[in-house]
Design goal:
Layout (H helix, E strand, L loop, with lengths): L1 H19 L23 E13 L20 E10 L4 E11 L6 E12 L9 E11 L7 E15 L2 E15 L7 E10 L6 E12 L2 E2 L7 E11 L3 E10 L7 E12 L15
Antiparallel strand pairs: 1-2, 1-13, 2-3, 3-4, 4-5, 5-6, 6-7, 7-8, 8-9, 9-10, 9-11, 11-12, 12-13
């Protein structure tokens, strides 16, 4: 068990080190969340609020979490409100609306997201559990981004080692309209290592970052890379939480960010029947 846990943690840290050798696509500050293999069960609906506050950021625009916008990141509050529904036993759909509050200003609408997320095969059919994530995101420009519309694709890889779970979310992002639409894909990551200690209270470590264009990485000083020690768990009445401080690892990152995510789910009824026997996609 100890060797396997060590291997899992070592592999995650190695992935971070390799990525840090390149350089950063914009980190999504509205959603500091690592997606697991499991999807929302068929007929279940989930209400989610993802929040992040920049406690120690940058005092000028063009760097930190609002690097593509016109406001400085210092004191910024980001929030993403989402509604997720389990379409089938393997696929869920979600809609987001995002807001931002620059320091000294009120809340602004910052954009919208539509996404699908799914999983392949039943759990533990393969050596690792595999899933997928596809998203369209609209931004309010130029205040909070310089691309009006972006497409994002994330493979999901998860492996359990006893009480320990390792989750990898490599991120491939492409502007479809606005600045960068004539360029290729950017590459980033959202990874997490979680220890299931108690149902209501468990520790974990999450890392987020980006490397810029796959074929033209940004300079190291312009990258954003963050590490978040987190606490997570499930409270009564189906409420789940994930909270913790994040620390920037490069000069282009904000220095300290505090995230607090809340989720609540309930069953409302299914639109579709059970997935076909032997199905590995739907």
């Amino acid at each position: 068990m100890g060797k396997r846990c060590g291997l899992a943690i070592g592999s995650s840290l190695l992935a971070i080190a390799l990525l840090a050798g390149h350089a950063a696509a914009q980190v999504d500050p509205y959603e500091f969340e690592v997606y697991p293999y499991a999807t929302e069960p068929r007929g279940m609906i989930e209400v989610e609020s993802d929040n992040a506050v920049v406690a120690n950021g940058h005092g000028h625009a063009g760097t930190g979490t609002n690097d593509a916008g016109t406001y400085p990141s210092q004191g910024m509050w980001y929030t993403g409100e989402a509604l997720t529904y389990g379409l089938t036993d393997r696929i869920e759909a979600a809609a987001y609306v995002t807001f931002a509050q620059p320091s000294g200003h009120g809340f602004w609408w910052a954009g919208d997201k539509l996404r699908l997320r799914g999983r392949f095969f039943d759990e533990e059919t393969l050596p690792v559990n595999l899933g997928w994530y596809a998203e369209l995101e609209w931004h309010k420009t130029p205040q909070f981004d310089n691309a009006d519309l972006e497409f994002e694709l994330k493979p999901i890889v998860e492996k359990d080692f006893g009480r320990l779970s390792v989750i990898l979310n490599p991120v491939f992002e492409k502007p479809l309209y606005g600045r960068g639409h004539d360029q290729g894909f950017e590459f980033g990551y959202r990874n997490g290592v979680y220890y299931r200690w108690l149902r209501y209270f468990s520790p974990g470590v999450e890392v987020y970052g980006g490397v810029g264009l796959i074929d033209d990485a940004d300079p190291l000083t312009d990258q954003q890379h963050y590490i978040f020690p987190v606490l997570w768990g499930q409270l009564p009445h189906g409420i789940e939480y994930n909270v913790g401080p994040g620390f920037g690892l490069t000069s282009g990152s904000d220095h300290v960010i505090v995230k607090f995510n809340l989720e609540m789910e309930t069953f409302i009824g299914s639109l579709f029947g059970s997935s076909p026997e032997g199905s590995w996609v739907f």
